Amino acid sequence: MRFLNIAAAGAALLAVGAMNVTVASAAPRKAEKKVHRMSGMASWYQMGHRTASGARYNPDGLSAAHRTLPFGTKLRVTNSRTGKSVNVVVNDRGPFVGGRVIDVSRGAARQLGMMGTGVARVQIQQLASN
């Protein structure tokens, strides 16, 4: 009978220990916001009347097209050669030319100093959302 009581006590301790581990591991973890940074070639584009997000395209506005970032994502795009930068909002999809990471509106291209060349090597940083 003593053996059964010791075994039962051991099982109870194991169960309590397991519960402690379970409770500790079940604590919610704070979600971390992933900040995107990328670099590559950018181009500027002039398109039709509407963007993929449904917004009216403003060629002189400060917008951008990206393949995967959600619409409304705010980015700082910096021309690697000149150091000029501009803040843009993703409201379209693209670019659809291989080797490019982003398309910017004509207004953004003007501020980046890439109107003449049409393309530029850029650094892209996602800005924190408010």
TrEMBL record:
Domain of life according to the entry: Bacteria
UniProt keyword list: Cell wall biogenesis/degradation, Lyase, Signal
Enzyme Commission number(s) from the entry: 4.2.2.-
Occurrences of domain RlpA-like protein double-psi beta-barrel (ranges): 39-124
Database matches in InterPro entries: RlpA (IPR034718), RlpA-like_DPBB (IPR009009), RlpA-like_sf (IPR036908), RplA (IPR012997)
Annotated Gene3D superfamilies: RlpA-like domain (2.40.40.10)
Protein role: Lytic transglycosylase with a strong preference for naked glycan strands that lack stem peptides.
Keyword Cell division: no
Keyword Lyase: yes
Leader sequence segment: 1-26
PANTHER family tied to this protein: ENDOLYTIC PEPTIDOGLYCAN TRANSGLYCOSYLASE RLPA (PTHR34183), ENDOLYTIC PEPTIDOGLYCAN TRANSGLYCOSYLASE RLPA-RELATED (PTHR34183:SF8)
Family membership noted in the UniProt record: Belongs to the RlpA family.
Source organism of the structure: Terrihabitans rhizophilus
Pfam family, one: DPBB_1
Protein name: Endolytic peptidoglycan transglycosylase RlpA
